[in-house]
Amino acid sequence: MTAPIPCQRELFDIPDDVAWLNCAQMSPTLLSAAEAGEAAIRRKVHPWTISPVDFFTDSEIARGLFADIVNAGPDEVAIVPSASYGMAIASKNLTAGPENRILVLDEQFPSNLYAWREFAERTGARIDTVPRPADDDWTAAILTRIGPDVAVAALPNNHWTDGGLIDLERVGVALRDVGAALAVDATQSLGAMPLDVRRVRPDFLVAASYKWMLGPYSLGFLYVDPKHHAGRPIEQNWIVRAGSEDFSGLVSYRDDFQLGARRFDMGERANFGLMPQAIAAMRQILDWGVGNIQATLSARNEAMAARARAMGIDSVSQGLRAGHFLGLRFEGGVPEGLGTRLAAENIHVSVRGASVRVTPHLYNNDRDIERFFDALGRLL
Ligand SMILES: Cc1ncc(COP(=O)(O)O)c(C=O)c1O
Predict the structure, then answer these.
(1) What are phi and psi for residue 83, nearest 5 degrees?
(2) Which of 175, 182, 217, 355 could cross-link 202 (Cys pair, CB 3.0–4.6 Å)?
(3) Which residues does a 6 A CB cutoff place in the pocket of ligand 1?
(4) What is the pLDDT averaged over residues 177-181?
(5) Which residue has the CA at smallest separation from atom 7 of ligand 1?
(6) From the CA of 111, how far away is ligand 1's center (Å)?
(7) pLDDT (tens digit, 9 = 90+) per residue, 271-303?
(8) Which tens digit of pLDDT belongs to each residue from 49-61?
């Protein structure tokens, strides 16, 4: 059961005349997270207040909160700076040969492509790009391309340009049937759309925190399936080695690591300035409930899609689109300069490929939506 969430604008600092319909680009920081971040930055003004245990405490709290969001255990979560870093870890720890294919989507976000190009170069495997399906059914299009020669599918949960949905549970089953790995970039869904790693069973799943996770820039989290916990990190930092809690013994160099996915943590993962913001944001998301966020944003977007349709503007239909995401498709392409002209009126959306991406969150109110449609009507 989900319950709609009333507008939460008071938890943010968004002036009345700003319509930020652009969470897919970057979320505004929650006031609670900003306060936590300001206090965190001030902490290093007095470094004597930071003790060795603090290098671990917040990292573990954040790891646990992310684990709660994806239904994993904290030992299965690594702290990373970006989606691309997560994909670098995934591609370093998977294998393929010249007979294999790596599945990606047409116009996939580059952070989940370049790592696989390098992987293809290294292993001799071939990138196989699933073309955009004319009927918008990405899941069916992916399923028809899965065969015994697929080694890896590197996929999002929904397409970053228009929200086109991928049923990762179904795709995951088909991949496991042929012994292929699944690496997921959930940056454009996690925090706003429920995802359960026990059901999807990805090998690796990463999300940058600065969009739907409402967290800071330069921080993300990576779920790693336990079968990869003996894998190789992409950097060798001291804190992920066993016994690093004992600062006086750090030069008793160790070959063994901290438990589980912690070996993949980035250097300086304690990240004193940013981590408290991520913690505040994830607590707020869990408090609202990801299912409730999705239900609320889906209703908002479906109403917008219907209104746009009445103006002759198309979008991916409800069942094939992630509910929190709307990409408006204009016959003959996005009108020249539309994004800039809207921005000049303080109405912020983004033009991505052939779509105008409209991605509201709980801070948006009915006035924002009215202003968007009023401007659209005038500018077309
Ligand atoms: C699908 C997707 N993945 C990842 C990112 C961010 O990637 P990174 O964290 O590597 O900068 C974005 C940003 O727009 C995105 O849309």
Answers:
(1) -65, -40
(2) 182
(3) 82-84, 109, 111, 156, 160, 185, 187-188, 208, 220
(4) 98
(5) 83
(6) 6
(7) 999 999 999 999 999 999 999 999 999 999 999
(8) 999 999 999 999 9
Whether 332 has a pLDDT exceeding 90, the answer reads: no
Residue closest via CA to ligand 1's atom 6 equals: 83
* Residue in this structure with the two tokens 């105008």, named with its chain if needed: 356
Q: Tokens 């901290």 belong to which residue?
A: 258
Label residue 354 by pLDDT band (50, 70, 90): confident
